[in-house]
Amino acid sequence: MRVKVSELMNSKVLFLQSRQTIAEAARLFSDNENISALPVLDGNQKLIGFLSKTELIGAIARGVLPSNEISPIIAREVRSISFDEFLPDLLNDEFEYIPVFKNSELVGMLYYEEVYHAIAERLYEKKLDMEASIDAVYNPVISIDNEYQIGIFNKAAAKLMSISAEEVRGSNAGDILAGTGVLESFVSGSHAPLPSNKLVIAGRSFLPYRTNIIRNSRTIGAILVLREISEFEELVKESEYTKKLNRELDAVIESSFDGLYVTDGQANTLMLNNGFERITGIMGFECIGRNMADLVKEGVFSRSGTLLALEKRERVTITIVPRSGKEVLITSNPIFDEEDNIIMVVTNVRDITELNELQRRLQQVEGLREFYKTELQHLKIKSSQKMIVKSSKMKEILDMVFRVAGVDSTVLIQGESGVGKELIAEIIHKSSGRKEGPFIKVNCGAIPENLLESELFGYEEGAFTGARKSGKIGLFELANNGMLFLDEIGELPLGLQVKLLRVLQNKEIIRVGGGKSLKVDTRILAGTNQDLMEMVNQQKFRLDLYYRLNVIPITVPPLRERLEDTPVLANFFLEIFNNKYQMNKRFHKDVIDCFLEYDWPGNVRELENLTERLVVTTDDNVIKTSDLPVAMNMMVLLRNDPEKGLWSLKQTVENAEKQLLEKAFKRYKSTYQIAQVLKVNQSTVVRKAAKYGIKHRS
User: Most CB contacts within 10 A, which of 431, 528, 537, 694?
Assistant: First the structure.
């Protein structure tokens, strides 16, 4: 769906002057609550940048005086977009606001929330169009999802069952369809011979045609079409099965819009109607009087429902694409005499090309609607960092995350590097009562020890050489009324652990060089990829702090322990990078199988990085196992068959070097430390890390 920017932009443009004060800007934002950023003009009325509400709040939190001018805190490099651009190009990137220009003139603004609301409305209109198309189908059409909720319930079905279609959609199928036999047709997925497979509803007889609804190679439900056979059934009852069909039966068959093909009990063709010729492109003179087995052997038919029905002695449904090129649903029904002998096979042939196309389009619209619905519900969560889960383990963890978000208890998020600890922390913040407050993240292992204390607690004027004259606010104060996420808490020095314990106990901090306690209302979230209890045993972490942090523990499992998520995440990242680099790559099935065998020491981050590398570096549109890193192929091969995992000496050495360096980069903070431990030059460590694409991970 392509929509021009001009159709969605907010044409009401409010401006700020560069010399206006913090107080004036705050007043303008307060009067226009839905605006997240405002353009700033200089004295010549030229656009020089933007001031976001977030930056304004941050400035006020840092103690900037209301009388100060806004000029120092505006963003001067902001992406813009043309009035005539199309929206899908914009949706590939993350944004909060974007100015819209026409002929170098600022004519409007795009805001994230307004854009996605507009998209959702258009998708809902398309959904209504699809439902109207399904309602136009003459036969009753019903669909249910894997939770037995009714999705499609067209007018023909509603009229048949004397139920309002609007009231039924979204209801439980067991409540609505109980006693009709329709639900059993969904569940069984197989068909018995006539008459036991037919449904009788409101005194009319129907044959159910069921097919799975598949999206992204996964069955998400089923769709059922009811074909009425009342007239045909009555006619068959009145006829003698051992005689040729009479003129009345011929008339009924020829009047059928669907194709009909009839053989005797030995698969010899007795008749076929005009509908069959029209749908398949195969003429009567080619088939009548001939045996179906010979017709298949000669290639007139690619395969035969009649032969399968005779073999299985039950109703058979298959799909074929005959010479007409249409998608055709074939249902062959064996007819039995009183002695249980098959005396006839009646085959119904139905053109499902249009229905399948409608179904595919409806699935696409439904999928997009659900996607944008999720985006609207989680508008505050960055779209590039959505938590993609399928495994029951991760669903349970997310349930826990949303439950604990509503309280103010301290949370300890544990898990290996790359599993998504920071994203869990963001979800807790965005789902909590503190979501309007700041969310401050700090990696305790990334800040030098001599600077970490002043970063966390701030400092007073003259606290040390080089300190600002006005002092500096610390991260605990900056996160007041919000949340502070202390990632890699195990790297916190013991001296600072004592101070952190005091903050958790008393909700007070003392700045470096100060003597006055300051109250802070900050919720603490901590993250680690280390075993803190083992660090306690080694006297590297305080036991009392551990218990203060471990109020609500959340352990995010590594990717190898939730394999169900691997294919979903891989295809999610593939779609992201295909869009980013304007490519159309896809994974071969063997690649996904290889992913499921691999241990993923770098977890989701490793999977994301590998997917980007494969999208960028492979020549083919199909990513194959031969494109995967040698180390990954070797590791999977060794696990499945150790005797086959023989490589060249050079490759074996390189694989060993890479694995050793990866472990060292996880354990030590600098290449200097790694060089000392491995007893090589620091330049060697840097060179080989670049060769193997190894970087420090947070």
Answer: 528
